[in-house]
Amino acid sequence: MFVLGIDPGLTRCGFGLIEGSLDGVESFRAHRAGVIETDPLVAVEKRLSQLLIELSSLLEDMTPDAVVVERVFYQRNAKTAIPVAQASGVAVALAGARDVPVRQFTAQQVKLAVTGYGAASKAQVQGMVTRICGLSQVPEPPDAADALALAITYFMIERTERRYPSVRVS
Asked: Is residue 70 annotated as part of the catalytic site, yes or no?
């Protein structure tokens, strides 16, 4: 099974494709990871259009069985949250238009699933993604590692939900 993780952002949108299994085998293989970058000096509609085109191309090329997008969690800065929410909406809509199941998890859920600690640092997440996927080096930039972590989280949470059907992580 292939799962595409998307760490949404308007300036930097991370993506990562993980191959894994839902049968309990703890084996993950990272196939591709990277970042889509848009120019902050360009109009928002052009940047969203670029993101739409590039994410659409990734979905076409990778044909994932599921897509995981980081859930936007508003903290303090609305200026940051709004463009992230716009990028997230593009990713969710594209997957939905292709009938690909979409899950969304918060950064805290991802950190907990990947490191065992919901307040883990970016470096800790990167380190665990490297270890879990058996990579020779830490995925860079951090947005790509975060996207891989999102895909890994999908497998971890799906397995738990299948094992315990009355439990559903929202």
From this structure: yes
**What digits encode the pLDDT tens for the residues 125-150?**
999 999 999 999 999 999 999 999 99
- What span, in angstroms and rounded, lies between the C-alpha atoms of 27 and 16? 16
Catalytic residue among 19, 60, 65, 70: 70
pTM of model > 0.90: yes
| Catalytic entry in 7, 37, 61, 158 | 7
Catalytic residue among 54, 143, 146, 158: 143
Is residue 170 included in any domain, yes or no?
A: no
Catalogue the E-assigned strands of the chain.
2-7, 12-19, 29-37, 66-70, 102-105
The CATH number of the domain holding residue 123 is 3.30.420.10
Q: Give the separation between CA 50 and CA 70, rounded to whole angstroms.
A: 20
- Respond yes or no: is residue 7 known to be catalytic: yes
State the residue range of the domain holding 33: 2-163
